[in-house]
Structures are given as structure tokens and as C-alpha cells.
Amino acid sequence: MTKRVYNFYAGPATLPLPVLKKAQEELLDFQETGMSLMELSHRSKPYDAMHKEASQLVRELMGLSDEYVVLWLQGGASSQFYMVPLNLQLKGKPMEYVNTGVWSKKAIKEAKFYGDVNVVASSEDKNFSYIPKDICFGDKAAFAHITGNNTIYGTEFHQWPKIPNDIPLACDMSSHIFDKVIDPKLFGVMYAGAQKNLGPAGVTLVIVRKDLLDRVPELTPTMQKWKTHAEKDSLFNTGPCWAVYICKLSLEYLKSIGGVPAIEKLNRKKATVLYDVLDKSGGFYKGHAEKESRSLMNVTFTLPTPELEEACVVEALKHDMVGLKGHRSVGGMRASLYNAMSLEGVQKLAEFLKVFQEKHA
Ligand SMILES: *Cc1c(COP(=O)(O)O)cnc(C)c1O
User: How confident is the model over 152-207, as pLDDT tens digits?
Assistant: First the structure.
């Protein structure tokens, strides 16, 4: 028997076991082609059918209308930090961003190469421990941009900001895509590196409202235009075939367990189990995020001393729980509870933390 651990890494991250098993089962012979999907032409019929199915599952699970295109791109979410302003810029209009952490800052930095950027709200004053309230975007903006879930700090938007009419909202959904039901019509662009809540590293899911595809300046390199990829159904060049395939399996699995409403319910339960331990620890475990901004996906907390934090991570390892060391910007610990993390895994971690506290408090 292969030994599997409870993987709390922030990304690349845990995947559903049935997805890995299915990939294993099909590894040497993908749908009776006598080849692995890795060996299959991206122009072949079996690949094409799989590719279309992946995009269709995104549409279905998210409730996307025909007004949107689904793209599978390379270069990570980090490439979208420049592709968003490059593709959405409008001469003379500012681009407006909310700064909720390191990933927002990186997005802002890239936007500045293309024109004026207004940072309309920020939570930097408290080390990004909250999502700003009453965010106000101007009605002259080319577009607005937010980071939906802040992987490093463990904060998440639970209400979407109001956007003036006709201004597209772009959202970096890298660490929360499909974690809860959303109304896609609120967004002009949604993008996510797959390696957190969707699939493996190597592919970025980008969803764009079709009317926004024509904004891109003509003198833009072909590969940098969303439009290029939209016109060829993300098969303009050789895409990340294997990564798309694993995403497809993971979307299929999500559908089989009841889709986004079901996983949202489970995610809320998981988060409650863990946040309850923090809240009932009498201050031994201190959550980094303010309560109303708490992420369903990344739970960040500190212990009374760095020594205890290290001991806790080491002790957890002995119980087959890995990836709990916090990001250096926050310190302490971080447990990522992505869609593929089981309730059982979270309960095990919660029990472990209670016992650890009893031993060390
Ligand atoms: C991890 C992460 C990124 C970076 O993704 P890459 O695919 O590594 O470029 C961007 N935004 C958020 C919110 C992330 O969590």
C-alpha cells in the first residue's frame, strides 16, 4: 500500500485521490489510444475531446454563459499580472487595484508598466490581516482588480465590492477558484493558477468576457493576447496538455460529489472545525486574519513562541501532516484546506492542535 499523508501545503497542493488513481489507471493507455495522454498529439481527436470537456466542465460548474471564453494558458497566474493590464488597458484611463497582500502588489507592479494605477484600498497597515470594507472604484477606470483570496495571509473576500457600471472586475482566484458559489456575471476576468485549488502546476485557467477581447492594442505579441487563444480554443500552440487533463479529472470529480454548492458546504465545515480550535485556545493559537475576513482555504495562525511553532510543525510531521509551516510574511503556521483536503484530515489536525496545546501551554 502506498502511504499518503495529509498535505496542507499552499501550492502545489493536495489533489483528490480518485483523480490521481484515474490518471494512474490511464497513464499508459489513454482511452485505448495505446499511448499516454502525454504522448498524444494536441491535434488528435481524443485530446481535443478531452480538452473541450475540461472547458465545458468549467462552464457547467461555474454557471458561465456564452458571453465568456474559457482559456487554458501557461506562465502561471503571475503572467496574468501583466496580461490583465495589457489586454484590458484603455488609453487615458486609470487601472484600479485593491492591495490585499503580496500577490496584489505583484499585480500592481506589472500594471504600472502600462499606465496609471490607483490603489483604491489597502490592508497593508495591519499586515494584510483583513479585507478592506467600503471599497470604492472610480467610474473612469479601465478596469478594477482584486485578489479574491490571499493565500499568504489567510483572508478572503466574502462580499464582492460594488463596481460602477460597465467597469470590468478582474479577479485573481488562484487560491479559491471553485471554493464557493459565485455569480460569474460580476466579473469581467477570472484567473487562477491551477496548482492550488484545481489541479497541478503548469496551467492557468483564465475566463474572459468576450466583449473584452477586442481591447488589446494591435501591436501586442501574438501569444500575449487573450484573443489569440480565444479564437483557437486555447490550441493556438501546444498547450499544457497533461495539466489540462488533470484539471479535467478534478473538475469531473467535483461534479460527481455535487459541484460547487456541495464543496462550499464542506469547505465551511472544515474551516469551522479549525477556526474553532484557534478561538477556543485561550490565545495559545492566534489567528492572523480578522474574523470576518477569514479564508476558507488558508488558515493562518501563530503560537506563543517561534520555538513552539517549530516544535508543532515537527510534531505534526510525525502524525503524517505536512506543509504546515507558515509563510515568512506572517510567520507561525498555515493550514491550506483546499477542496481536495478531506474533513477527516482537518479533524485530525484540529485534534492534534488541541493535544499539542495541552502538552505545551
Ligand atoms: C500562488 C498565487 C499566485 C502565483 O501563481 P503562479 O501560478 O505561481 O504564478 C498568484 N496569486 C495568488 C493569489 C496565489 O496564491
Answer: 999 999 999 999 988 999 999 999 999 999 999 999 999 999 999 999 999 999 99
Considering the chain, what percentage of its residues have pLDDT values greater than 90?
Answer: 99
In this prediction, residue 90 carries a pLDDT of: 96
User: Which ranges in the chain are annotated with CATH 3.40.640.10?
Assistant: 17-256
Q: Catalytic: 196?
A: yes
Catalytic residue among 72, 180, 196, 227: 196
- For a ligand 1 pocket test, name from 72, 78, 84 the mutation site with the most ligand atoms within 8 angstroms of its C-beta: 78
**Which residue's alpha carbon is nearest to atom 2 within ligand 1?**
174
Reported pTM:
0.98
**pLDDT for res 304:** 97
Class of domain 259-360 as given by CATH: alpha beta
CATH of 17-256, one of 3.40.50.2000, 3.40.640.10, 2.30.40.10, 2.60.40.3140: 3.40.640.10
Q: CA-CA distance, 254 to 199, in Å (whole number)?
A: 11
Beta strands in the chain (DSSP E): 6-7, 68-73, 95-99, 117-122, 143-147, 149-150, 155-156, 169-172, 189-193, 204-209, 286-287, 298-302, 321-322, 333-336
Other Cβ atoms closer than 10 A to 16? 20
